[in-house]
Amino acid sequence: MNFRFEIFYGVKERIIVSRKRDWIIGLGVVLGTIILIILLVSYISQKQAYKGVRLSSRGDKIAVIELYGPIYDSRQIVRQFKQFGDHRSVKAIVFRIESPGGGVAAAQEIYEAVKRVRVSGKPVVASMGTVAASGGYYVACGADTIMANPGTTTGSIGVIAEVSNLKGLFDKLGIKFEVIKSGRFKDTGSPHRDLTPADRKILQSWVDDAFGQFIDVVINERGLSRRKVLQLADGRVFTGKQAQEHGLIDLLGDYEDAIRLAAELGGIEGEPTIVKEHRRRITLFDLLFQQIEGVLRGLGGITLRYSLF
After folding, report:
1. Which residue in 132, 241, 282, 298 could disulfide with 128, CB within 3.0 to 4.6 Å?
2. Which three-class secondary structure string do you get for 142-193?
3. In angstroms, rounded to a whole number, what is the distance separating the alpha carbons of residues 99 and 191?
4. Residue 101 near residue 127 (C-beta atoms within 8 A)
5. Which of the residues 134, 156, 190, 307 is marked catalytic?
């Protein structure tokens, strides 16, 4: 009986190990497939997202630059500010923002592009839609005037860095990582180990420095005291009406109000001619894979984000 039991037990263990191995392989195949699909969708989106626009030199125009969704890549927006900022027939720009924020560096690059156009003497009006928070608010700070709807979600001044910790899952799967590193903190934020107190101190310093950069922009662009900004910059969100009361935005108004203000600032009389690059429609498929892309970015390493969530 004992002999038969030992044989059965050994077979059972082999079955469990085999099933575990199959499950791991299956998970890897699924993740690999998702990554390939996302790369394909991202490539197609970059090729098709903007059809471009050809500007004639006749007639005064208002250019509309649209920022929709999370801020991960600044190139399209920066390019448009460069194109419209340099063209003589464009007398003002409306920067329409529908974004919960995103990557710190990408938001900073867009802010600098907006500011360059403003400093050159061409008026820029930031028009906030449903949400323009965190990085979405950061990029708006480069404009001459910030306008929001009374119910716009804005604010969320702050920085976040998330670390994925999969150690418990790896332990259950029997997966162990051997790390060879050149320095003590080289694998800080690795998903297969816990953060040490020293790791947390390093990451907190990293976040605090990026937060300080955000604070400085708000202080300089909005003319608010450091004390006032720090009171507001605890990550909380505001409606457009509340943001105006705190001095974070200038005016309440919708998209059409922003167009009229831009025409006035640009010295355009009558009904202005609007020019913009046409984007393809955002589909449910795009939104789904934006969320998956965000998860994969989190698994791929630590990134600083001026983001609402």
Report:
1. 132
2. CCCEEEECCCCEEECCCCECCCCCCHHHHHHHCCCCCCCCCCCCCCCCCCCC
3. 28
4. no
5. 134
Indicate the pTM of the whole model. 0.77
Angle of CA points 185, 190, 194, to nearest 5°: 90
Q: What is the distance between the alpha carbons of residues 92 and 61, in angstroms, rounded to a whole number?
A: 7
**pLDDT, tens digit, 9 for 90 and up, residues 176-229:** 888 888 988 888 878 878 889 998 999 999 999 999 999 999 999 999 999 999
Q: How far is CA 88 from CA 59, 67, 206, 265, 266, in A?
A: 10, 23, 42, 15, 11
Is residue 205 flagged as an active site residue? Answer: no
Active site residue 134: yes
Ordered alpha helix ranges (H), the chain:
2-48, 75-86, 104-119, 135-140, 167-173, 197-222, 226-232, 240-246, 255-265, 284-299
